[in-house]
Amino acid sequence: MSKIITISRQYASGGSAIGKSVAKLLGLPYFDKTIIDVTAKESGFDPKYIERAEQTTTTSFLYNLAINGLYTQPLTDQLFAAESRVIKSLAEKGPCVIVGRCADYVLAEHYECFNVFVHSTDEFRINRIVEHDGLTPQEAADLIKQKDKARRRHYKYYTERNWGDSQNYDLCINTASCGIERSAEIIALLASE
Amino acid sequence: MSKIITISRQYASGGSAIGKSVAKLLGLPYFDKTIIDVTAKESGFDPKYIERAEQTTTTSFLYNLAINGLYTQPLTDQLFAAESRVIKSLAEKGPCVIVGRCADYVLAEHYECFNVFVHSTDEFRINRIVEHDGLTPQEAADLIKQKDKARRRHYKYYTERNWGDSQNYDLCINTASCGIERSAEIIALLASE
Hints:
Two copies of one chain form a homodimer.
Chain A: E1 4-9, H1 15-26, E2 30-31, H2 33-43, H3 47-53, H4 61-68, H5 75-92, E3 97-99, H6 103-107, E4 113-119, H7 122-133, H8 137-159, E5 171-174, H9 175-178, H10 180-191
Helix pairs in contact in A: 1-10, 2-5, 7-8
């Protein structure tokens, strides 16, 4: 019987590809952006707003005040709460693979999970972005820095943990040295034991 | 052809057992305390002093002054330099498994390594200590805290990196969820590809 597998990942490290591959190997449902859509439907948020907001931790106080009034949560916090509800309802249905969305933290208390952090070298990630998205190496390097910073801050803000600290995961794997397919095979093996 | 495998580990997480098992699986030499002895022979340190000093980063200024005079390195720094020379000379001879001693950092520039961090839950580690060393659970918990603190400080002092930050390793593995033997098999597989 497989556990729920959560995958946190550095941008362009191959975490999503690994997640899809693990789901395929184990015959499990796979969730990432899908969660946004479901959340949006359930909570009435505009999916485009959600996609923009979820990589930030705070929106301006005045903006929140204007939108929400003084005594409500900031929009990003409301969104996090809504996403967490969706993640829990997916977990309720049984084993699955969830990429991103602080799912490791959200599910920690009540579900048996196998938590993975996928990372890589800058070189490996830049090459992937250049190949897949046609950016220049410099643009790719800038994007990596910006995305990692946002994810680190987002994770810290909601979980009070350090993103990528091995202590929070069952397995942390470097795709530059271990390979994407091999990483997926190892995760599938360990999570189904 | 296997790489040089370095293993850093939380106290009582099973890192040494994994190192021995990986060495056996791949037919490679295994080094841990042995390095202390070789270092001691090469540098003229007393092995007992080395064992005590290597888990600390600083000895008192006055003590160093009395032993070494004003313009020499502290003893712990001399020891680290001597150990680093030994680690490099072992690496020169070819693939091997080295547990502890900041070997990942020492070899980073000139050798192709597969760097592993082994960690676990407190519960798993306490149980191992109680079973193997006959301490009470409370004594084991205190020992874990003390040893981890020393290792973290030692690693930070000499490498300026954070001990257990996944970014510094090819693989970080939690023995409570992955098991000691299975961890060894996976490391052996990945490091020999």
